[in-house]
Amino acid sequence: MNPVQSPPLALSLYRDIARADWARLAAGMAQPLTESEVVQLRGIGDRLDLAEVREVYLPLSRLLSLYAKATQRLGADESAFLGDEDTTTPFVVGVAGSVAVGKSTIARLLRELMSRWPDTPRVELVTTDGFLYPNAELERRGLMDRKGFPESYDRRALVEFLTAVKSGAKEVRAPFYSHMRYDIIADAHTTVRRPDVVIVEGLNVLQPAPSPNDVAVSELFDFSIYVDAEPAHIQEWYTERFLALRQAAFSNPTSFFQVFADISDEEAVQRAAYFWNEINLPNLVENVLPTKHRATLVLQKGRSHAVERVLLRKL
Questions:
Q1: Exposure class string for 274-289: b at 16+ Cβ within 10 A, else e
Q2: pTM over 0.90
Q3: In angstroms, rounded to a whole number, what is the distance separating the alpha carbons of residues 23 and 51?
Q4: What is the pLDDT of residues 299-311, one digit of tens each?
Q5: What helix, strand, coil percent values describe the chain, rounded to 5?
């Protein structure tokens, strides 16, 4: 299966910034996180360290803070022009990319970093996992083997949630997903109370609308990030993470994947290869990767998990 390549025309819309040049943007910025804090933010299999935070994500958080401030200022100016009360709403950032590419760690990290900038002290994070249909509904629809594909999400509920956020609602609730149980938890919610910034992380958040009359989730973003890497590298990371989870979360008696806790290393590698080749790679190639060119910014990772280039869409 050949990975989809972004068209040259789409790539020409971006500034292509090498890691060293991007890192220079951090000159003079104080490192707000300690090593222990970075370790706590790091997901299983990620190799995030203080150097990566300082050289890649600190300048990115500052850029996002500038975008948020400019958007808030524009909203206030528009309200003044119309003679209305200032109704500036949260700045919404989307983070997309493959399974195991590290987008969840990046989203958590950006939440911490952005909250340290004076213009964006209140930052919330919401994952689209909460908008997956419950397992019972996926079973009813015959979609359990396509969990993570666009059709496995309640897209309408996600759009309604983000519309409420962007409309300035005082409190908006999102469903809660348990990775341990691999299912939505009834009566559990993530609550967003009109913060300065909302980060929305998920596989398919840059998907176009399914029909011309529908609203795309990405239309409700003020800024979007795509975390990119070669599929072969992501497969390596996915396998490493699967093996690590077998020794950790999978061994929990309440885990949906507890059945994999006692299999051999060879069997675990084979099982990870099956999940990757039959589910995650097809979803990446068919649905996730083709949306890369829709992002405001692309982080290109190398085999070591480190970001090597940054593509920033030209204004």
A1: eebeebbbebbbebbb
A2: yes
A3: 10
A4: 999 999 999 999 9
A5: 50, 20, 35
